[in-house]
Each structure stands twice: as structure tokens, then as C-alpha cells.
Write a structure and sequence with these properties.
Layout: E1 2-7, H1 20-27, E2 32-37, E3 50-51, E4 61-62, H2 64-74, E5 80-90, H3 93-100, E6 104-108, H4 117-123, E7 126-129, H5 139-150, E8 183-184, E9 187-188, H6 198-216, H7 218-227
Parallel strand pairs: 1-2, 1-6, 5-6, 5-7
Antiparallel strand pairs: 3-4, 8-9
Helix pairs in contact: 2-4, 3-5, 6-7
Bound molecules: adenine.
Residues 84-86, 110, 129-131, 133-135, 138, 141 line the site of adenine.
């Protein structure tokens, strides 16, 4: 897979994407990560990439020529162009899986107050938010999106790491887990986990996953019920 990240701060990358599972995927060639600096597409000597919005209001907007030129420089047929924006659809495991299935992903980090709307209409396929809060710019959002996608690529996770058992892997939150010692500060590991009865353990964990999801995330629980055809 190829991922291009468009940004005003290319020095921020790969950053955290250079370590752990993502770093391994990058080094093994499973994913090729490039950064593109919007500044290189400025139309003047001073490197201007932003301007005040028509109609007034705070902040600056990315110029449409700069944004479209940067995207079009890297775009290949079939590439998916994502713009990070607090206004976008909220990132989910399902969206990450969808993006992981495209061969070429272009993640344009939003800067300033955003991008001229005509440029968005011209070249952006989907606007994606990583949650209902506001970041200083889209770079952290771009990293989060790239991370959720890269770890889903076939071969990115080792044998001991599983995407299926993750929270949301089956539409439920992950059950609580325990390791050594059997008793920690007077708290014992649930007996059933030491029983060796894998059928019972699976049932027990599933029950905990369902209870946790119902209590903590009623929104996820409702979606789960709908997907299972229960509701
Ligand atoms: N830019 C600023 N806030 C953001 C958010 N929550 N998600 C994506 N991009 C953003």
C-alpha cells in the first residue's frame, strides 16, 4: 500500500509511525509512506499557502490552487483522498478497514481554519474526523488515521497480535485480561481463566465483552445488535 501525507509540517513524519507495528510495516515495505509539503505548491516567492476568508471571520484558509496542486501531484487512478477535519465523518474501525483496502491513500492534513470549499469539492473523496474535539491542525489526525489503516494491512500484525480480538474487531469492546501473578495486591485472577476449559473461557469472555459494551458504550451496543440482526 502507498500512503501520502500532505502537510505543512513534514518533519512531524513518520514520527510515531516509525515505531512499533507501523515502523515494522514501513521497514518491511508493506507500506510506503511519503510526505508532501503544501508549501512546495505556493504560487509566489514568499511561499503563501493561506488567505483570509471572504465574508470575514477568524483565521485563514488554505488557498484552493495550493491544495489541489498538492493532491494532484501525488494522485493516482483509484487513489482515495481523505481530508482531516473536525467536520468529517467520525473515524471508526469499519472506516479504517475500508481505507486499508485501497491501494493508495492520500491523507491531506487540514491546516488553519480549513480549505477553500471549492478545492474540497474538486479533489477530496471523504472528510474524516478522529473525534468530537478540536486539534491544533490535522497532523495528529493524519497519524491516527494512518496508524489504524497500517495495522490492518495483511502481514502488519505478528502471530501474537490479533486484530480480531481487539475492541471493535467483532463490534464489541474487548474483555478484561490478566497475566502473572495469579494474585496481585490481594486481587485474584478469575478462576475460570485458570481452568483450561477453552469453551467456557470463550463464553465467559464473550459475556464480559457484551456487558462492558452495554454499560460503557450504549451507542456501540445498539450498532452491534443491529448488525447481528437482533434489533
Ligand atoms: N482537525 C482539527 N480537529 C480535528 C479532528 N477532531 N479530527 C480531524 N481533523 C481535525
Amino acid at each position: 500500500m502507498r500512503i501520502d501525507i500532505l502537510t505543512l509540517f513534514p518533519e512531524m513524519f513518520p514520527g510515531p509511525l516509525g515505531s512499533s507495528i507501523d515502523g515494522r510495516a514501513l521497514r518491511s515495505g508493506l507500506v510506503e509512506l511519503n510526505t508532501v509539503n503544501y508549501r512546495d505548491f505556493a504560487g509566489d516567492e514568499r511561499g503563501t499557502v493561506d488567505e483570509r476568508p471572504y465574508g470575514g471571520g477568524p483565521g485563514m484558509l488554505m488557498l484552493p490552487e495550493v491544495f489541489t496542486a498538492a493532491v494532484e501531484k501525488v494522485k493516482t487512478p483509484g487513489a482515495v483522498v481523505v481530508l482531516t477535519s473536525p467536520r468529517g465523518e467520525v473515524l471508526s474501525q469499519a472506516l479504517a478497514a475500508e481505507l486499508a483496502s485501497c491501494g493508495h491513500l492520500i491523507i491531506a492534513a487540514g491546516h488553519y481554519e480549513g480549505v477553500d470549499e471549492r478545492a474540497v469539492e474538486e479533489v477530496v473523496d471523504r472528510e474524516v474526523s478522529i473525534g468530537d474535539y478540536v486539534l491544533s491542525n490535522g497532523n495528529l489526525a493524519a497519524m491516527v488515521i494512518a496508524d489504524t489503516v497500517i495495522r490492518l494491512l495483511p502481514g502488519a500484525l505478528g502471530d501474537s497480535e490479533s486484530a480480531e480480538q481487539d475492541s471493535f474487531g467483532d463490534g464489541l469492546l474487548e474483555f478484561p485480561q490478566y497475566t502473572r501473578p495469579p494474585v496481585f495486591r490481594g486481587r485474584a485472577v478469575p478462576e475460570i481463566l485458570l481452568s483450561g476449559d477453552h469453551g467456557k473461557i470463550r463464553e465467559y469472555r464473550r459475556g464480559l465483552s457484551e456487558a462492558l459494551t452495554r454499560e460503557r458504550r450504549p451507542d456501540v451496543w445498539e450498532k452491534f445488535l443491529t448488525n447481528e440482526g437482533i434489533k
